[in-house]
Amino acid sequence: MSRIRFAAIALLLSAAPAAAQPPAPSATPPAALPAAPETCVEVDEVNGWSVIGDRVIELRVGANRLYRVELGASAEVAALGSRARIKLVGNSLGDLCRTSGAVVADGRRLTVVSITPVDAGDKQAAPR
Predict the structure, then answer these.
(1) Residue 81 belongs to a domain
(2) 5 occurs within a structural domain
(3) Sequence-distant (≥ 6) Cβ neighbours of residue 14 within 8 angstroms
(4) Is residue 7 part of a domain?
(5) Dihedral through CA 80, CA 86, CA 87, CA 91, nearest 10?
(6) Is 85 part of a structural domain of the chain?
(7) Termini Cα distance of the chain
(8) pTM over cut 0.70
(9) What is the rounded CA–CA span in Å between residue 116 and residue 114?
(10) pLDDT by residue for the chain (128 residues), tens digit each?
């Protein structure tokens, strides 16, 4: 009978560490989250802008919406400044988006890197 007890205890002790280990990761990756919709600005609704930095402008849209637009590295070459003449070129729907549309500053076409809404409390400069 002592052999049976010894075998049972040995079996329990050898199984305990395996039970304490976390389960192995699944071979299949978790489902990817859907991408957030792209932020776009209707060009016809823009009624002011200001230069925030050498590659960033802020657009006032409608009565109280602000959007920060980061431009490609070519904006630094264009010497984007507060006196630059800016034209917004929309896509076929009239929207300025990261994937379509552009900003023309003093005749140079600048690509849009990102467009993000700006909180009223995060405002850095007053649009023109």
Answers:
(1) yes
(2) no
(3) none
(4) no
(5) 40
(6) yes
(7) 94
(8) no
(9) 7
(10) 555 555 555 555 565 555 555 666 555 566 666 666 788 999 999 999 888 888 889 999 988 899 999 988 766 666 676 667 888 999 999 999 988 888 988 788 888 999 999 986 655 544 44
